[in-house]
Hints:
This protein is mostly helical. It has helices at residues 2-11, 13-26, 39-67, 77-94, 105-126, 133-163; strands at residues 28-29, 34-35. It contains six helices and two strands.
Amino acid sequence: MQDLIIYVAIVVVPTLIGIIIGYGVVGVGSFFAHFRVPIHWAVTWGIMQYVLSIIGVIVFGYVMNMLAPSFSSRQDQIQATKLVAYAATPGLLAGILYIIPSISFLVFLAGLYGLYILYLGIPVFMGTPEDKRWIYLIVAIVAYIIIMAVVGGVTSAVMWGVIGPYPGVHL
């Protein structure tokens, strides 16, 4: 398990770098407002996302393992965590694209490729029968969305709570 955590910790570094540079140096905004987050907050935001991404992968591995018996799959925490770590890899590596916030939607597309890896890996890592593969994937996707929404929500809520709303925007 320690090797898997180290693997994820390395793979999530591009996301850390992307957030720090994208939000703290390049800046974010639209036609009406553009701003850069102070670099110390961008670093804090990046570190929070880094840590919570690692925790998210580990938690998702536990969820996949707990769901396994419901889909006639074998329970194996290491295999479930490997599967999740490999499936998360494209999205985490693509996090470097946060350097240019306007193209950061491509991180989402990389995440979709990760779902394909999850689909391919479920029978290999978890021993899931073919007839249960799709439903296991769908339930796993729902669980993943919930986990990552919590990770992103916690990070954003904390950071926007500290930083405040966009400058010049009155809510």
